Amino acid sequence: MAHSAPQPHATPPELIRNFCIIAHIDHGKSTLADRMLQETGVVEQRLMRAQYLDRMDIERERGITIKSQAVRLPWAVVDEDGRETAHILNMIDTPGHVDFTYEVSRSLAACEGAVLLVDAAQGIEAQTLANLYLAMENDLAIIPVLNKIDLPAAQPEKYAEELAGLIGCAPEDVMRVSGKTGEGVIELLDTIVRTLPAPTGNADAPARAMIFDSVYDTYRGVVTYVRVIDGNLTPREKIAMMSTKATHELLEIGVISPDPVPSKGLGIGEVGYLITGVKDVRQSRVGDTVTTATKPATEALGGYKDPRPMVFSGLYPIDGSDYPVLRDALDRLKLNDAALVYEPETSAALGFGFRVGFLGMLHLEIVRERLEREHDLDLISTLPNVVYEVQLDDGTQVEVTNPSEFPGGKIASVTEPVVRATILAPSDFIGTIMELCQSRRGTLRGMDYLSPERVEMRYTLPLAEIVFDFFDMLKSRTKGYASLDYEPDGEQEADLVKVDILLQGDTVDAFSSIVHRDKAYPYGVMMAGKLKDLIPRQQFEVPIQAAIGARVIARETIRAIRKDVLAKCYGGDISRKRKLLEKQKEGKKRMKMVGSVEVPQEAFIAALSQDGGGEKAKK
Ligand SMILES: Nc1nc2c(ncn2[C@@H]2O[C@H](COP(=O)(O)OP(=O)(O)OP(=O)(O)O)[C@@H](O)[C@H]2O)c(=O)[nH]1
Which parts form a coiled-coil structure per UniProt (predicted)? Predict the structure, then answer.
């Protein structure tokens, strides 16, 4: 078998359907995907485990999908004359969190159609809309489906109407399934074949395949997932990445069903994986076009974007001697994560560490958790911040990813990133949502009623105001009923200032923050108050100040105390005295000196951990 000549592809494009399932979080995408694996016989019943496709441990624990995967499902449909035609369905799983919108958009671009899945007990939510819009931008055919119809609380009639109104079809055309019981899943698979368009492409043109995912595998190096648009790819040929012009030898090519199976090639419309032996996912970027080196295509497929970190935070080992371990761990993680960027940074307060860029808060939490868990590190992270562009009076432009580097000179303007946010909620909450968005410097762009009691609100909001704790606030103010989705929408100028926190006149770099001028005072008061409680008394009085430049906006004072550990020891037990002194010395090791003030490391951890880490991992 291995010796026969490679064939361009096994499946003619007219027998292929490429689709994805798009849904709001928890509407049951993974459960339905599992059920499809089962119904198509790809995974045997006895081997089935929940969320078969989510392979990373963290994904399974958190019940979310971070990396997309593609699975090939054989499915035969029987026509009116009783003739059976075997088809190949490629199901491309998409990540479900705003941090990974770009990856979602590339996964969608690899499909001709989408199953739009909506929980029959919940109805349309913000991510349903956001994903639907992305699918429409990619010209996908949409199959509307209500899931969880087995639930007693399901209201299929009501939500079929809502969904039909949204995409402009008849309520009867909305399919009804249960990923749990399997009801309706066979009909859905048939509908995918019957209604989604088959892929088209030019078989004779130079090969073009789009990368929609790439993952690092310890044993095999980078595994790149592609969808072939034109031409074909065969093993052992040289391929080129169009964005970097780098060439690699194609060591293996194959399909996932549900484990990787090598094939003799991939042709038009086919979805599969490539292995070239490269060790770094940066050499195989999502959105890039793969072509052959011998007969390269001249034009790359559209839509490629470099991953751009949106949130930065300083990561420092609690034990300073772990710095090399942290560096190696980041180097290792980078192989698997093209969006991760970092550079060494030193903080007077925290020592040696790294300034790390993330796609968003979930990405930050995942990276931090992996560093701590897989590399046994204890880390302090500084308050996360977004990226600011500062224009100085002399015309120079500075990109600020660390608040302590905010320039001190004459500033002409500061710009911050903004997002376009979609909030869906019961209409009773319109007032409270408007209030919240206003307090976060939001601008209302539009509002639509999806039904008399459900409203969609569209806002422009500064990223810095939404990325940290906004979702929690929104949830608590709407009794959990609101859903949120957002996407980057450029930059805006804003009246932003840097607030420094000073201990006895010395700035503590780790506590500097860039905030809107109106919020500078509350931030200063909050930080000064918090530090007053966290820092133990010293032998002298310590003023804590919050300042914008040279202007102090808030102040607290830690009163002096003479700490005499020996006072407790009456009698002349010298060894006991020595022991106590030793103990005090131990304690001092974990103290950081800020100027002449001793600050216990715990104070930094406590002061930094209470804000900022707010957004829950799951949305
Ligand atoms: N009763 C019922 N529960 C379901 C059904 N489908 C999914 N669930 C449950 O709904 C919850 C969410 O399902 P998932 O499949 O993890 O949802 P998901 O959309 O893949 O979630 P993410 O991957 O986190 O986006 C789980 O507790 C499932 O057991 C269904 O048809 N009926």
Answer: none
